Automatic annotation (TrEMBL):
Record-given protein name: 17.6 kDa class I heat shock protein 3
Pfam family, one: HSP20
Keyword Cell cycle: no
UniProt similarity note: Belongs to the small heat shock protein (HSP20) family.
Species the sequence originates in: Forsythia ovata
Coiled-coil stretches noted in the UniProt entry, renumbered to this chain: none
Classification via Gene3D superfamilies: 2.60.40.790
């Protein structure tokens, strides 16, 4: 079946597009406090085993995972009229962390379907400016 026909069968086209796009299907907020960078991702129905949080290349925060479809032993006897939440799909988001991020102290937790990743901040040392006296010869 073509991609176009998949978009318009048995469901709202916007929902289909949203489900295919990892950016739309996994909304993430990033806020900065004086102490930390905080990322919050809506991941309803996922457990911590379904989600992976890692830092690669020094400062790239990656949040990924997979939503598994609900398997039903009576699939032959069931008739689905709308399938928006039971589709298997993976997601992957990444963010470049600023220089002041303490990537070795990253913390992640899940509460009520919301993943919270906290990246503490450190003070970035500003290079000292030194004035050089110019001698006259």
């Amino acid at each position: 079946m073509s991609v176009i026909s998949n978009l318009f069968t048995n469901t709202d086209p916007f929902i289909s597009l949203m489900n295919m796009c990892p950016v739309l299907s996994t909304p993430i907020d990033w806020k900065e406090t004086p102490e930390a960078h905080i990322f919050m991702a809506d991941l309803p129905g996922l457990s911590k085993e379904d989600v992976k949080v890692e830092v690669s290349h020094g400062r790239i925060l990656q949040i990924s995972g997979e939503r598994k479809s609900v398997e039903d032993s009576d699939q032959n006897t069931l008739k689905w009229h709308c399938v928006e939440r039971n589709r298997a799909r993976s997601f992957f988001r990444q963010f470049r962390l600023p220089e002041n991020a303490k990537v070795d102290q990253l913390n992640a937790s899940v509460d009520n379907g919301v993943l919270t990743v906290t990246v503490p901040k450190q003070e970035v040392k500003v290079p000292m400016t030194k004035v050089i006296e110019i001698e006259e010869k």
